[in-house]
Every structure is written in structure tokens, then in C-alpha cells.
Amino acid sequence: MILLQLSAGQGPAECCLAVSKVLKVLLKEAESLQLEVKIIDREAGPEADTLKSVLLNVKGSDALSFAESWHGTIKWLCKSPYRPSHKRKNWFIGGVF
């Protein structure tokens, strides 16, 4: 069993959106690797369908290497849906196991 956390830290709403988007990608990847992932805890973000933080329990033969691949700073590229005139497209979140 490996615990993995994704967090927007003190980032803006766009970082919270990145956490929810990264979670979807992570879950899809885990499924393809036949890993079992359960959400233990989550903290909602300021906007609908966003997360400030999510804590995951990862089980399976490759759980450690999977968690290692999501450890560190994760860059998510997208225009801000909350501030259309904002020029920034790079949003950063953290992954820790």
C-alpha cells in the first residue's frame, strides 16, 4: 500500500482545477497498469469540480514505481477558464508519496 497526495498548495483556482484534471489522468493510467486506487480523502477547491488536495491509496505490484512517477512538481498547461484575459497557461501542483 502506497499513499499518494496531489495538492494545489496555496495556488489559485486554476491549480485546483489542475489537481482534478491530473487525478483523472492518474486514475486512467493506474487502471491500465491494473493498480487499485482508492480515494481516502479530498478537499474541494473554490470552483465546481476542483480539488485543493486528494489523498490516494495505491495498491498493486507496481504501486511504488507508479507513485514515484507522480512525485514532485507537476505542470498542467491550460488557459484559465476563470480569468479569460489572464495570459498565464502554466499551472503547478505537487505530488507526494
Structure in words:
- The protein has 2 helices and 5 strands, in the order βαββαββ.
- It is an alpha+beta fold and 97 residues long.
- The chain has a single domain (2-96), classed as Alpha-Beta Plaits, CATH 3.30.70.
- The chain is elongated, with a radius of gyration of 13 Å.
- It starts with a strand and ends with a strand.
* Rg over C-alpha atoms, rounded to the nearest angstrom: 13 Å
* Second-tier CATH architecture: 2-Layer Sandwich
What integer is the average pLDDT?
97
Order of strands across the main sheet? 2-3-1-5-4
The shape, in one word, is: elongated
Uncertain parts: none
Tally the helices. Answer: 2
| Alpha-beta content class | alpha+beta
Domain count: the total is 1
What is the CATH fold-level name?
Alpha-Beta Plaits
The CATH C-level name is Alpha Beta
Q: State the major sheet.
A: 5 strands, antiparallel
Could you list some keywords that capture this structure?
97 residues, alpha+beta, Alpha-Beta Plaits, five-stranded antiparallel beta sheet, 2 helices, 5 strands, 28% helix
Write the layout of secondary structure elements.
Blueprint: E1 2-7, H1 13-32, E2 36-44, E3 51-59, H2 63-69, E4 72-77, E5 90-96
Antiparallel strand pairs: 1-3, 1-5, 2-3, 4-5
Report a brief summary of the structure.
With 97 residues, the chain is α+β, with helices and mostly antiparallel strands. The chain is built from two helices and five strands. Strands 2-3-1-5-4 form a five-stranded antiparallel beta sheet.
